[in-house]
Amino acid sequence: MTHHSLPALGEQLFAALLSDCLDAAGLTKQALPSRIRPLDDGLVMVGRARTAVFMEVWHIEEGVNPYELEIALIDSLTPGEIPVFACSNPGRIAPWGELLSTASSVRGAAGALMDGCVRDIKAIRAMRFPVFHGGIAPLDSRGRGRIMALDVPVECAGVPVAPGDLVFGDADGVVVVPQAAEAEVLARAFEKLRGERSTLAELRRGDTLAAVFARHGIL
Fold this sequence. Notes:
2 domains, two-stranded antiparallel ribbon, alpha/beta
């Protein structure tokens, strides 16, 4: 963990900046695709990944609780964590809704990320709980998907996510910063942030884009 608190990162940084810094570190495939959108683009989400992998199913087993691992994950959340759901057929399942949002929020979770769909969206928006999703649909996961493993490496919308990775989402989208590169990427981000503030100030006073780019190399 860096010396920066997660809330402070959310207040100071933004997804596009982190994406640029991941690129500069040679990590060019850490931004989730554009179909992954925030339920409320006024909210920022930053926290540590807790992963779950969904297997697609087409049946309901009698006497089996299909939500067993889902419940275990949510009940074990600690402040600053983000459940990350990787769904094998994202368009067929809405594994996240008002109840999971409520339980996660009470435990201090920083938000939720899934490549599947979300439902109960009016209630979640009213809670101001950050949820980043691959669609909106009323489809319950029961009979469509079951969590088969928790806290294992997954791919969410094609991007690798390991437990404990830094997940950052805002109106522009979501990026995942691998733990091994976190210190370097954050150092680059705060350095670039200082440069961008100077760049903006000079552009606002009327300097040309060419002159400002020549001075700072930032665009």
